[in-house]
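From the pipeline queue, job 12 of 40. The input is one protein chain; the requested action is below.

Action: predict structure.
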Amino acid sequence: MQSAGIAIPPPAIANILIDTGATMTSIDTTVVSQLGLQPTGAISIRTPSTGLAPHSCSTYDVELTIPGTVARHIPALAIIDGHYLSQGIHGLLGRDVLKDGRLVYGGPDNYCMLSF
């Protein structure tokens, strides 16, 4: 963006749900607007709520940092938009990011650990 003379927006902090069933990471359209992102394309997806009918989503190129003891930084990631605020989240962390990490779910001990 800087090389194109476009100002980089300040980072947005978002509550993202880990979703092992999501192929791609996605964020709510309000976060897209807050960041002033412009679509770089579109993709058809199917979700449990759309059934067999594909749904068109805009794609965006973003830089993603997952905070932690050792932060995971992804300088270029293609994501899609969606509507998640009614579920109390800002988006879904999909397998496009999770594929590089280790996810442990300790149900009886009520914990979830994601490491890269």
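Job complete. The CA atoms of residues 99 and 116 lie 9 Å apart.
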